[in-house]
What we know:
Order of helices and strands: EHEHEHEHEHEHEHHEHEHEHEHEHEHHH
Radius of gyration: 20 Å
CATH class of the largest domain: Alpha Beta
Shape: globular
Bound molecules: uridine-diphosphate-N-acetylglucosamine, uridine-5'-diphosphate
Number of helices: 16
Strand content: 15-25%
Number of domains: 2
CATH topology of the largest domain: Rossmann fold
Largest sheet: 7 strands, parallel
Helix content: 40-55%
Number of strands: 13
Structural class: alpha/beta
Distance between the termini: 12 Å
Low-confidence stretches: none
Amino acid sequence: xxxxxxxxxxxxxxxxxxxxxxxxxxxxxxxxxxxxxxxxxxxxxxxxxxxxxxxxxxxxxxxxxxxxxxxxxxxxxxxxxxxxxxxxxxxxxxxxxxxxxxxxxxxxxxxxxxxxxxxxxxxxxxxxxxxxxxxxxxxxxxxxxxxxxxxxxxxxxxxxxxxxxxxxxxxxxxxxxxxxxxxxxxxxxxxxxxxxxxxxxxxxxxxxxxxxxxxxxxxxxxxxxxxxxxxxxxxxxxxxxxxxxxxxxxxxxxxxxxxxxxxxxxxxxxxxxxxxxxxxxxxxxxxxxxxxxxxxxxxxxxxxxxxxxxxxxxxxxxxxxxxxxxxxxxxxxxxxxxxxxxxxxxxxxxxxxxxxxxxxxxx
Length: 363
Ligand code: UD1
Ligand code: UDP
């Protein structure tokens, strides 16, 4: 019997790790332990509830306006006794958050093997996204098992000197979740509100966008909405108080922009499916939207998901007010441009990534 511990702490990690938890729990030769850091509290618990995952350990580290220091130090200190007590044969971490980096560092100090889910994504700009590009590169230095979502991410790892025998292309576990959540007969009162309009879904939270970039994003969205009476925006806002304050300053009082609390993943996937386009700086949404054929304007300067750009569904528009205004207006009013992007493609796998990862670990 081998013991595998999965460690995660934020919403996107949970969405992509919970399906794997449930897959591993079905394997009788594997003892599965779940540790959550609680880097996010409410947004994590929302996902745990949906997937009915009950953690074995909860580090409960979140505090309001936490800094990268807070998160990293608290995880290192609180995870150490758990790892020492349980001594897993392998610890699985996901992607590029501070939870992922701090957990990997703790495992390295204790010489516990690390399996990295969603390995090999890169922008090669260490400050963008910040601090995620550093986090994922750092994990790659010390991980023994690398589960890459695409051939491109595998190539990145090989070019950095990782041995091919430690890398498996599995697809992204995000798609596993998406396969079960979207239903054509889904309904919701917010969607009824937008029924006779073009629905745009908005999200924004990246650390490097906090401050002026976020204000520019919101101002450009507001201007487009004021000029296009047939458009409504739903914005499930991140819980970060800095994001909330900026949104409150720039978007308050516009009746065709509805700011709502974070949606649970089942609702969010169905909102995406009913939208006409998506404005976001999120990573995970860039993976999900292409499968649904929803054009995405990515409000960032870089992306580690070039597959979606090449497929034509994603467009990188940066955070300049004028550019976002122009690109957003164009997609709303130019059918040819819109149709070019609204093509359902799925560069991120067939929805069986969790099974593949579990098979490899079992072997
Ligand atoms: C983190 C990840 C980022 C990921 C994002 C997903 C790092 C460095 N960043 O950024 O890669 O894209 O999660 O959303 O790991 N908060 C709550 N309740 C919650 C969640 C957050 O109140 O359930 C508030 C807290 O005040 C917290 C703040 O949001 O201090 C920021 O959370 P944090 O995890 O530090 O950063 P994110 O921007 O969420
Ligand atoms: N998501 C959600 N509810 C929301 C907004 C997003 O469940 O209100 C999901 C979305 O489908 C995707 C993930 O959260 O799977 C993306 O998380 P986020 O944007 O917070 O982080 P990132 O992917 O940028 O790291």
